[in-house]
Amino acid sequence: MAGKLDRRVTLITGGGSGIGQAAALACAEEGNTVIIADSDAEGGGATLRQIKDKGGEALFIRADVSKTAEVEALFSQAVKQYGRLDCAFNNAGIEGESTALAESTEETWDRVLGVNLKGVWLCMKYELRQMLKQGSGAIVNNASVMGLVGSPTNPAYTASKHGVVGLTKSAALAYARSGIRVNAVCPGFVQSPLTERKFASSPGRKEAAIARHPIGRLGTPKEIAAAVVWLFSDAASFVTGHTLTVDGGYVIQ
């Protein structure tokens, strides 16, 4: 059955769980060939099996996006396998510790910025090189609502996501006339393994997070995935450099 992304090849980083897994499954349902990248082999393998069980085409490649050699190997294998890359969702991310800046550690800063910001930069570098050869492509980065607002207890995460917004806008300007669109999604709090880890660290935190969303609930990975599919699709052909908030009203308050 033909879909919005029929016969396109798409890379999803952090595709082993949460938003990344939902995006991988949604792209596969739209007729896309999906390359799943994740540092967690078990999670990546689970996503791969779900796609193949439904008759889809997919490949899992284990990779830590903060490591140059692993990112190089990821793109080398992906292009060797499929010969092209039409879409990419740079979604891999970690939350780090929840603490005020004065009490935060250099280790946390380096690790969070390494995955959330350097990892997006590294992947975009290789994605853009391949897309420039083709003369076309669509990239979506996961920037989070924390890329638009501040947080008193997540300085590294917030800084990394603001950086992703900046990278998105810079790349969109640089490659707009090369047939490549670059956008970002900014999810609010979504029911996912990452947010569950954050909620587990403090009683009442989940209820407080729900209360911050005017819509009265957390988002679902499928809702974010739907936005990613739209940004990849021809329906968004005139959209680039945009930060699409999918947040239940979080940032309009």
List the helices and strands and how they pair.
Layout: E1 9-13, H1 18-29, E2 33-38, H2 41-53, E3 58-62, H3 68-82, E4 87-90, H4 106-134, E5 137-142, H5 155-175, E6 180-187, H6 193-200, H7 205-211, H8 221-232, E7 243-246
Parallel strand pairs: 1-2, 1-4, 2-3, 4-5, 5-6, 6-7
Description:
This protein is an alpha/beta fold and 253 residues long. It has a single domain (9-187, 221-245), classed as Rossmann fold. 46% of the residues lie in helices and 15% in strands. The chain contains 8 helices and 7 strands, in the order βαβαβαβαβαβαααβ. A 7-stranded parallel beta sheet has the order 3-2-1-4-5-6-7, sandwiched between helices. β4, α4 and β5 (137-142) form a beta-alpha-beta unit. The model has no long low-confidence stretch (mean pLDDT 95).
Name its key features.
seven-stranded parallel sheet, 7 strands, 253 residues, alpha/beta, Rossmann fold, 8 helices
Classified in CATH, the superfamily is: NAD(P)-binding Rossmann-like Domain
CATH topology: Rossmann fold
Averaged pLDDT: 95
Helix content: 40-55%
| CA(first)-CA(last) distance | 42 Å
For the largest beta-sheet, the strand count, sense and barrel status come to:
7 strands, parallel
Main sheet: which strands, in order across? 3-2-1-4-5-6-7
Number of strands: 7
* Helix and strand pattern: EHEHEHEHEHEHHHE
- How many separate helices? 8
Q: Radius of gyration, Cα only, in angstroms?
A: 17 Å
Query: Are there runs of 5+ residues with pLDDT below 50, and where?
Result: none
